[in-house]
Design brief:
Layout: E1 5-9, H1 20-29, E2 34-40, H2 51-67, E3 72-80, E4 100-104, H3 116-124, H4 129-149, E5 154-155, H5 166-176, E6 179-183, H6 194-200, E7 204-207, H7 220-228
Parallel strand pairs: 1-2, 2-3, 3-4, 4-5, 5-6, 6-7
Length: 240
């Protein structure tokens, strides 16, 4: 199996190392045909990227497209779920510029009033089985609402630090043509629900989630996991 695109990489615009251009160069060196810069939404605590800086990234990508014609460079974003209604932190002016929208749960977000029930119950789930059930239901509701409300290409690192009804997630992903990510940094969490996702016809991307240029396009862990879980190459969108 060969992976030809890496759609989830970070830069020094957030908490990662390296520039947008350095990520692009690394992707070329790794034999990638496509590279996505997918910075965190503005509501990510400490490392969120502002609307203004997101436009700067998009502008840089436009300039780099002329310089590196051998690779397709995508302006992506890793947005956060903000509340039970499935709202996400993508500024309106950014939406028309996005090539791919990636969305995931992150515990370290600036909490809005609508997020407090999710935050509270996930914190209390460590101490109470009843709260764990409530947290799972709220997490699932928020994720499903987000997928139904937005045109989401990929759910990032599913299962990472969040409990969710994987069967319900898989059903809505299949219906909405939203893929799940095999994350090379956190992909082991996927083991719990790959079989369910495959049964529902969900597709996958293998991404590096690189936080340093040297890790862009390094897909060994994701490929290993896909092989261990018997995920057919045909359902991994960025494989050949």
């Amino acid at each position: 199996m060969k992976i030809i695109g890496d759609y989830h990489t970070h830069t020094n615009f957030s908490h990662a190392k390296g520039t947008v251009e350095e990520n692009v160069i690394s992707a070329i060196q790794r034999g990638m045909k496509e590279i996505g810069i997918a910075e965190h939404g503005p509501k990510t605590l400490f490392v969120g990227v502002s609307e203004k800086k997101l436009h700067v990234i998009a502008d840089q990508i436009e300039d780099l497209k002329d310089k590196y014609k051998e690779i397709k460079i995508l302006f992506n974003m890793e947005a956060n779920i903000l509340d039970l209604e499935g709202n996400i932190d993508v500024p309106r002016t950014i939406v028309p510029r996005l090539d791919m929208l990636l969305v995931g749960f992150h515990p370290n977000i600036i909490p809005s009033r609508g997020y407090l029930p999710i935050l509270y119950n996930n914190c209390m789930a460590k101490f109470s089985s009843s709260r764990k059930k409530i947290a799972r239901k709220l997490n699932t509701t928020a994720m499903i609402n987000a997928i139904n409300k937005h045109d989401i290409s990929i759910i990032t690192h599913p299962g990472h630090k969040i409990d969710i009804d994987t069967h319900e997630l898989a059903k809505v992903c299949a219906k909405r043509n939203t893929a799940l990510e095999i994350n090379c940094r956190q992909g082991h969490k996927l083991k719990d629900f790959v079989d369910t996702a495959l049964d529902e016809g969900v597709k996958f991307y293998i991404n590096s989630d690189a936080h340093h240029p040297k890790d862009v396009g390094v897909m060994d862990e994701g490929i290993k996991l896909a092989n261990e879980l018997n995920i057919p190459k045909e359902v991994i969108i960025n494989s050949i």
